[in-house]
Design brief:
396 residues; alpha/beta; 18 strands; 17% helix; elongated; binds 2-acetamido-2-deoxy-beta-D-glucopyranose; LRR_TM_domain-containing
Length: 396
């Protein structure tokens, strides 16, 4: 008969005491009031033990919350501050999204060893994260930090989060990823970084993510990707880089992605010259990957053509210093010299760049260093390319 009643600890105090004293339950069960009180404005459920306090314009976390509650729903309120000791160590799901959190006291999430899901998304005034904010959350599987206007992450932030599978960092203001940020996340399968302000990806950016399956980097401002950027991502099947500022991408950076199936590179200002040759070669050596179009934006004779369907000869000139969008690369947070990236890697390409510079000097007699082209030289090359494509057409 008792089993048909909802568990006693969610009853009002007086009723609980009545039941405790008049029937059979041990006294100790009722001794801590927080075991069985449900805060006003919250609704509590027994199975699994849940306190649901969402969408009540709450300005603070109700206290005390039922200490037996494993799921705490506090989203869509006006909570601005999270102090230590508010949540029970039994908590496994904690939803705090769409609040106004601007103060996180040290130790706010201390001792939550059973926490599996923490959703802090859509808190636009989120405070600066400290290295130890998530320390000890060894059961955490899913961490939501999207749309929090975060502009920097301390490099130790995700230390020890060995269980993490899903990490949502999209729609923030991140400009760089600190070295070793993901070092301990070898169980991570999905990493959401789209809609940030990333400009470059240095070598080993994703070091440690050997089980990563999806990496979403679209809608950033990426202009430079190191040949070693994706090293170690041997399980990656999906890579999104669309809607960035990439004039080129070193084919070498895609080489380690032996599981890759889906690649999206559209909506980038591809500059189809010798700097794209290693990418072109990667496409031709990896026909199994499903890819979006890779539409050339420049040089003018190749504008609108798909890089993948060019012939290698189309990419023999090295003109990259002319006009990649966001051409000023001097302010990129990139450890290697960005300018060398454009004519690096492929010895053939460098040689041709040299040959071509000589041609210019003989022909135009320009005393200027050929690394930055004058408009006249640029017109000359365009003219040559048009001539070349006309020649090629004649033979087809
Ligand atoms: C929350 O506040 C808004 C206005 O600020 C009001 O319209 C809404 O009814 C309030 N919701 C609750 C549950 O009190
Ligand atoms: C994480 O992955 C390792 C192997 O890489 C495995 O031994 C471990 O059990 C995993 N941990 C969790 C919590 O899934
Ligand atoms: C492309 O990225 C910009 C931000 O860099 C964003 O504002 C825009 O909505 C994105 N466009 C698409 C089609 O995703
Ligand atoms: C390139 O950017 C740097 C730093 O942001 C700036 O000092 C320099 O003037 C810029 N150069 C050009 C040509 O815009």
């Amino acid at each position: 008969m008792l089993s048909s009643l909802p568990p006693v600890y969610f009853y009002p105090v007086s009723l609980c005491y009545l039941i405790c004293f008049s029937i059979i339950l041990p006294f100790s069960f009722c001794s801590a009031p927080s075991l069985f009180t449900c805060p006003t404005l919250c609704t509590c459920y027994p199975s699994p033990p849940t306190a649901s306090c969402q969408s009540h314009n709450l300005s603070r976390v109700p206290f005390p919350l039922p200490s037996s509650a494993q799921r705490l729903f506090l989203q869509n309120n006006h909570i601005s501050e999270i102090g230590p000791g508010l949540f029970s160590p039994l908590t496994s799901v904690l939803w705090l999204f769409s609040n106004h959190i601007s103060i996180l006291h040290p130790g706010a999430f201390n001792g939550l060893e059973n926490l599996e899901e923490l959703d802090l998304g859509n808190n636009p005034k989120f405070p600066i994260l400290q290295s130890d904010t998530f320390e000890g959350l060894k059961s955490l599987r899913s961490l939501h930090l999207y749309h929090c206007h975060i502009n920097r992450l301390p490099s130790g932030l995700f230390r020890g989060l060995y269980s993490l599978r899903y990490l949502y960092l999209q729609n923030n203001r991140l400009t760089v990823l600190p070295d070793g940020l993901f070092r301990d996340l070898f169980n991570l399968t999905q990493l959401f970084l789209y809609g940030n302000l990333l400009q470059s990806l240095p070598a080993e950016s994703f070091f440690g993510l050997s089980n990563l399956d999806r990496l979403l980097l679209h809608s950033n401002q990426l202009a430079v990707v190191s040949p070693g950027a994706f090293r170690g991502l041997k399980s990656l099947t999906m890579l999104y880089l669309f809607n960035n500022s990439l004039p080129t991408l070193p084919g070498d950076c895609l080489q380690p992605l032996t599981s890759l199936q889906f690649l999206r590179l559209n909506e980038n200002p591809w500059h189809c010259d010798c700097s794209c040759r290693s990418l072109w070669r990667w496409f031709h050596s990896t026909p199994g990957v499903s890819s979006s179009p890779v539409t050339c934006n420049s040089p003018p004779p190749l504008k609108g053509r798909d890089l993948r369907f060019l012939v290698e000869r189309d990419l023999r000139f090295c003109t990259s210093n002319i006009s990649p969008r966001n051409g000023n690369l001097s302010d990129l947070a990139f450890p290697h010299k960005p300018s060398s990236f454009y004519i690096q890697g492929d010895p053939g390409a460098v040689l041709e760049a040299g040959e071509w510079e000589n041609t210019i000097e003989e022909g135009g007699g320009s005393g200027q260093s050929a690394s930055i082209l004058t408009e006249k030289q640029y017109l000359y090359i365009s003219f040559l390319l048009v001539l070349l494509s006309w020649e090629v057409n004649r033979y087809i």
